[in-house]
Amino acid sequence: KDYERSIVLFLSDHGEGLGDHGEEQHGIFLYREALQVPLLVKLPGNRQGGTRVATPAQLTDVAPTVRALVGDETVEATTLLDLTGSDPPERKLYAETYYPRIHLGWSDLASLIEDDLHYIEGPDPELYHLASDPGETDNLLRERRGDYARLRDAMSSYRSELESPAEADAETAERLASLGYLSARVTPGDEPLPSPRARLPRLHRLKRGVERTARGRWEEAVEILAPLVEESPRMADAWENLAMALEHLGRLDEAEAAYRRALELTGGGDQVTLRLAGLYLITGRLDEARKHAELVLPTSPARAHGLLARIALAAERTEEAERHARSALESQPGAPGPRITLARIAAGKDRPEEALHLLAEIEDEDKGAAPDFWFVRGDALARLGRTEEASRAFRRAIEAHPGDPRAYTRLAVLHALEGRPREAVGLLRRLVEENETPAAYAAAVETLRLLGDEEGARHLLENARSRFPESSRLAELSP
Asked: Which secondary-structure segment (H or E) carries 10?
């Protein structure tokens, strides 16, 4: 009964390139393989069942269609129902992509479909006849100059200029400027941007670099991406992934510079801003971390509040951390990060049972991916004296996040308390062998001192200072 009277729509938001024009995924080009998607509609009572509509439709037709079907008489836009009659309206279908411009520093593209003609506007305009050339391999621009001129003129009524977050919001622009950022975005008065088709080899190199970053093959990622940003200095995605790789290699000053460059290019992009704030957090520059996280509060409140909670916790402002964590959960109730922060606070206030209860509410699929889950669980279990379970949790934390030294050091302390000093030292040796970064060495040195092994700490610190002579963190540990 419910199905009979229901409206059901089946559709996709976009297609995939799959290499047809050199793009494997989507977002760069506007060819048919990316634009044409399935669209099936079931009406109440199965009205017009089996009807096929030849008139071009677009996804912007979906919302007014649903509104009209539920009785909204104020709908003025074209609906899918209007296309099923004997005299469907004449229309042009518009599409655009600013992804090449925002993420790669290349030209944005726009397209207009009229009947069987598909016009793509960019540095190298293209015109295709879809009925005779569905694969869009034969550019008819020279042969059909009249159609090209008509569609080019018609395109002007659809195009609008893109604004970055800083351009769209004066307060964001002011706060970015206060942090030392000068916009590096390309404006209409700048030099013409290159055609995405002319830069396909660089797109493939970027893809290889991003894949290396995703797999944690940091040195290979740097080898690919560092020369790429030299050749394409406006490629924001390359700068961001290069920064991530440099960060994981412990080259934190270079990572900061790369993140800042990516942030300038995006004009205040949320993801880059949050990554840079996270870098400032782990390097102890908490005021910088807070200012950057606050930049994205209006647009990404859940992620911003979640990071601000961790920053406040690092500054030992527990009440502020709790407020931010609860605000993050209000914005995104299922987010695991804020719940883990609340569990950390509970454990720190010697309420380990409450911490375990909060962690138990996190979905299984989030436990390995969410930073701190296994570490905080291990901490709570250790406070309850459940050392065997705590050890297992710390080992899971090392497995999930091998670059985070905290689980190594806490597990080493547990081994020492259990009368297993050789295992404790072996774990710290593993920490610095698998993570040759100043942060890892600093954590191992501090733990050895905590365990009373001053001689071992001195030798390790000397070795670390010889490897990383510029590290301020290691310098702070020197006598």
From this structure: strand 8-11
